[in-house]
Amino acid sequence: MKTITVVNDYPVSADRLWALAVDYDALGKVMKGIVSFEGLPNGRAHAGQKLDVRISLFDKFPKQEYYIEILECNDRERVLTSNEKGAGVKHWLHKLQILETETGSRLIDKIEIDAGWLTPIFAIWARYLYSARHKPRLNLLKTKDCQTG
To answer: What is the value of pTM for the model shown?
Structure first.
């Protein structure tokens, strides 16, 4: 088991960042070119959702089954927790939290990973994956179609 944490700051309100972070369409956009999803719903995440999706890394590797359960999606606290597994991962517990800052907001991703003997490799992948979301998310927050908050 390994836990990694990735922190990114954004020059927008915490509410605006939260609206983007829990939107499935936005997730597809910020992951474009890294992970593609088949079967991801439209709209936003909510507690109790159980998603059976297929993922492909870099749109090059074969699609693999992946399961996501949204354990918590608290709008007031701006916390989303998901339990995930598949594609070689036994346990992937992701907690996303958004906090107000003096200059906007901070998104904290904390991921607890168990992939057996491959855990260290998946931990490196997770750090890359959640860090790579920052720039596309910033770009998406600048667009006119992201006017929440």
So the answer is: 0.92
Q: What span, in angstroms and rounded, lies between the C-alpha atoms of 120 and 143?
A: 36
Of the candidates 50, 31, 45, 103, the residue with the CA atom closest to the CA atom of residue 74: 45
How is residue 23 annotated by DSSP? B
- Domains located in the chain, CATH noted: 2-142 (3.30.530.20)
pLDDT tens profile 69-100: 999 999 999 999 999 999 999 999 999 999 99
First-last CA distance in the chain: 37
- Beta sheet of 35-38, edge-to-edge order: 2-10, 104-114, 89-101, 79-86, 64-74, 50-57, 35-38
